[in-house]
Design a protein that fits this description.
alpha/beta; seven-stranded mixed sheet; 12 helices; binds glutamine
């Protein structure tokens, strides 16, 4: 039988050979998971032996990881904005990029006081809506997605993290969403077909593909948002690095008055905000 340390090194070596960028981290997360201990406890357990059933379970996960399955899908969870979200292969894995959407929305909300109404469109796992709700317990928050499956995941996350705090709607963009909002947020699909191929994470195509230039969702969502925002409302949009000037033009022609870009820590524009007034 092998020790925890040996098992970990063996798993990491296999991941490294397949070109995985974070082999030791991934192997550690997967081994801690099958042993049902934390990563800190895993370090202390290096000299212990790994039970055969746990070794087998670890091997199976390493094999899937070698085939490109993301760690978040293998663990069934992903951390976002300090909260832990359940995920499965039917939803986009929350990205640190989208934390900027939350941050920008929270800053805008301070201008509206406790009465702000916020809607998150294309919510997927619900991460943006739930993170905002977590930071602003008194705001009125709803979220929607076209995928029924995504909504069951979002509902599970909302029930677990903040029961009753977020209303959920099945809707093609904003079509079936009732009400008017001070802020609408969205991380819609915005990749081109080629970009999805290079990503190769097995995430749902519908959550990633934004048409030939990746901008189709914004062509739909921006005019719909105009109808649903209050006269001093804001639309907060995540998009790919090179898309923000196009989005600015779309916002401008839909009648948005103030348009601002927001950069992530790496200095790339990730979020564009359209203000109605
Ligand atoms: N940010 C994701 C990526 O580049 C794409 C998410 C999306 O299409 N909304 O991997």
């Amino acid at each position: 039988m092998m020790t925890v340390g040996e098992t970990l090194r063996e798993g990491a070596a296999r991941l490294r050979r397949t070109g995985c960028a974070t082999p030791l981290l991934d192997a550690g997360l997967l081994l801690a998971e099958v042993m049902e201990i934390s990563r800190e406890e895993l370090l202390a357990a290096y000299p212990d032996t790994v039970a055969p059933a746990q070794y087998k379970a670890f091997e199976a996960r390493i094999a899937m990881r070698c085939r490109g399955v993301p760690v978040a899908y293998l663990l069934g969870r992903k951390e976002f904005y300090g909260l832990e979200f359940a995920v499965d292969s039917g939803v986009l894995i929350p990205r640190p990029d989208s934390e900027l959407v939350v941050q920008v929305a929270l800053e805008l909300m301070t201008g509206f006081g406790a009465a702000a109404r916020i809607h998150d469109c294309c919510t997927g796992s619900g991460c943006i809506a739930i993170a905002i709700a977590h930071a602003c317990p008194h705001a009125d928050i709803s979220a929607s997605d076209i995928s029924r499956h995504a909504l069951t995941i979002a509902a599970r996350n909302a029930a677990h993290l903040l029961p009753g705090a977020v209303r959920l709607y099945t809707s093609d963009y904003l079509r079936n969403v009732p009400g008017t909002f001070e802020i609408i947020t969205a991380n819609p699909p915005y990749l081109t077909a080629t970009e999805i191929e290079t990503l190769a994470t097995g995430e749902p195509h519908d959550a990633l593909y934004g048409g030939a230039d990746g901008l189709d969702p914004y062509r739909r969502l921006i005019p719909e948002a105009v109808e649903k925002l209050s006269s001093n409302g804001y639309l907060v949009l995540e998009a790919g690095r090179d898309q923000h000037e196009h989005i600015k033009r779309l916002l401008h022609s839909a009648g948005f008055r103030s348009i601002t870009h927001h950069r992530d820590l790496a200095g790339h524009t990730r979020v564009t905000v359209g203000g109605m007034s």
